[in-house]
Amino acid sequence: MTDEIEAVKESAKAVQEVAKTSGKMIEATKDFCGFISRYISGPLEQGMGIVEDKLKHIRWERKIRLMQRANDFRMSIGIDAPIKPIPLKLAIPLLEAASLEDDDYLQDLWAKLLVNSTIENGPVDLKRSYIDILESLSHLEAKILSVIYAIPDVEIGNKLLITTNLPASIEMKYEDNREVPIPPNAEVTFALANLARLGCISLPTTWGGGQIFGHIYPSVLGRSLVEACTLKPSPV
Q: CA-CA 20 to 30 A from 46: which of 18, 72, 76, 128?
């Protein structure tokens, strides 16, 4: 009986904590809408309505654009309609992330991934890792990936690439080239660090374990993601 009473007490505490958190979120929303209402000379309800309406409108615009771009991409490779359905456990997070994306370049990648994933016997077997990685990429990081994997003869895992001129271009490092490359600027260096974190590239290291940003190794995962987001003619 004592154990049962303790379990009830613990459950009650958990409910109270959830209630406190929910209450804080509601108060924070009210505070924000009140902040807006002061700047628009209107009541709290009007401030809240402006935020909700604007967010709904933006989300609607992005959904419409995603639909249009996916249709355009399908038509460009000769497919009239989706052929292979996507499992719900992948379709829901993909569509959710794609409709929230406010960068046109990145949303186009989502649309291409969506199209490629619905081609019967097509080039892409959709994986959750593609969704997770694409959701974590910035515009610059996606551009860098496209430059890296545009090199047709990259040998995955054993060819160093020189990053000095990224995001404009990248070069192969040949065995007779003994020069130490100049690392890219701070913004590109940060982007490379994130791409390495996501497994899209690998960074060489010093004897002490420090990362070297003047060179990178391409990766299987990075190339696979870029290919999944690149349109190819229909196999049919």
A: 18
